[in-house]
Amino acid sequence: MRTPDELEEYIRKLLVRNNLDININQHPELISAGRDLGYDTGELAAVVGRVYESTDWRPYKLIEDQVINSSSFSQGRFFNEHARPIVEKVKDDLSAGEAIAYIIHIISNQPNPFSPRLHPAPDTGSFRDPWMTDDAWDIYKKQQVVEWCGVEVITLEQLGEVCFSKREDTLQLIQNKLYLPPTIMLLTRSAARTQPFEKIFDDIKDVEKRYLTIIYRLYNELPFRFRGAMYKTLADLMTEACQSYELLGQLHDVYSKGYIHIWQQEAQTALAGHLPSNLGKNGFLELLYTVNPQYPFYLNGQRYDSPTHLVTVARTSGAVWKDIFQAIDHRELHVWLEKLGQEPWCKGIDQQNTAISDSGFYNDEERKLASVQAFINLVDETATLPVIVAAPKELSFINSEASHVIESNLRLQLSTDGFVKASLRLEPAIPGVSLDRTTVKFYGLVDNKQTDIKLTIDPVQLQKDTRYDFQIVISSVYQDLRIPVAVSVVFPQKAYIIELLKWGGMSAAFFLVIGWLAGAFQAASFYMAMRQYLPWGLPWKYVEPVSIAYLLLLVMLGAGLFLSIRYIRRKYKTHAND
């Protein structure tokens, strides 16, 4: 005892063991401990008085009254079934261990003391064995002995232990009600206590469930058997199962059959009234994290010790995103987060998923990625948001000649490794200006971090000598990125001069050809050639062939000029209304 608090706790235990009254002179170890802490005998007595006054002894007095006034106590017998109701009455003030220890203290310090019976090495700290006085034990031994599976038993608790240890034999004996109910009647000599066991056979047809119900109703302190090991509490069982994904899966199979419900309900544990009604995976997770919210969470065999751990892995590994979405979609993550006290996260997940689904902006695969990205941002508020950057940051096409369509590429890049989908639009929309797509998406964890979009400007649809200012808007749930664009179209003077020279040269060549042909028509050889092609007897013979040739040249000249003007007007149209 190194501190005054430890000394006071020791004094309190002495008071309990000595019927709330001690003489310090009879406890030299107490005097020695007090002296080590600087107390003389008088001061130590004052400490004892202070401990007595500060302790609520009512639960202990209640236990004493219940024990002394019970019929079983007067008969010299005290079994687990007698102690259990007393422990239940003081459970808000004393632990089960403290209450049982005080009951044992009372019955073992009587003039005719009680002692644990039956086992060669009795347990003096519990009611695993029946406690009896010597006289009661002599009478009990003379009663008819009941045998079950080759073992003699005299209490229901013993019968439960034998059923538990000899499982296969018991399963054969409980196929029907021929054996167990009569055995219980012999042990209890009570129809009222036998009838509930008969009802088990009527209500439960599954033999394994019937077996579990029977053993835990006979003795509710029996452990739970899992993979050959024994577990006294649900917490011990869950803790062991959480060591691996395989073990947890096997325990889930046990849970899904209702076996854990039977154990907890028959054992009347604190969780018995709060067991999930759902025997599926979500119900199992609810029970698991009710026992201890700090248990790990498993996804596809991988262990995650906290939501932060899960998000940390998700930020660097795209392989886990599908599993995370499935856990969100099946509401398995909700169970874990709620038990961790993170109800706002659960509400946020639901709101974000509803918004994602209702937007109509995402296809099915994109919806999954967007949901996981939203979950990451919700859990880790310090995580960098998946934003898009553009290069260049602005575009200018001032004084562009209206001689050709303007095309320019804009590079978009994701700044992180997450997922984002964005819409593209021009603000305001201008006729003749367009983008080659309306959406872009990035998923950096699969090397999809950049893309180019093409801006196309048709000068024909723009007013010349007018400045147009607009923005390329890249809009996602995380940002509105705006790229300023300035455009003005001027008369294509340089192109005009080049085209003028080109067409001037072509026109000169055209007229030279016409002139050459006109000169050729006057040659005699051409005249003779023309005559031989004109049929005799027609009016052509009265017309000079040279006149006909000049008429053809005139038609060629007119047609050439007409077609040239028409082609020029079509090709060099500089406005939509021209």
Q: What can you see in these coordinates?
A:
This protein is an alpha+beta fold. Among the domains are: about 5-140, no CATH class; about 300-380; about 390-490, Immunoglobulin-like; about 495-570. About 50% of the residues lie in helices and about 15% in strands. It is built from 25 helices and 18 strands. A hairpin with a 4-residue loop joins strand 17 and strand 18 (about 480-490). Helix 9 runs antiparallel to helix 13. The chain is elongated, with a radius of gyration of 49 Å. The N and C termini lie far apart (about 105 Å). The relative contact order is 0.04. The model has no long low-confidence stretch (mean pLDDT about 85). Keywords: Membrane, Transmembrane, Transmembrane helix.
Offer a few descriptive terms.
578 residues, alpha+beta, Immunoglobulin-like, five-stranded mixed beta sheet, four-stranded antiparallel beta sheet, transmembrane helix, transmembrane, membrane
Unreliable spans: none
Distance between the termini: 106 Å
Helix content: 40-55%
Largest sheet: 5 strands, mixed
Broad structural category: alpha+beta
- Report the portion of residues in β strands: 15-25%
Name the average pLDDT: 86
Give me the Rg, rounded. Answer: 49 Å
| Shape type | elongated
In DSSP terms (H or I, runs of 4 or more residues), the helix count works out at 25
Q: How do the strands of the widest beta sheet line up side by side?
A: 11-18-17-13-15
Number of strands: 18
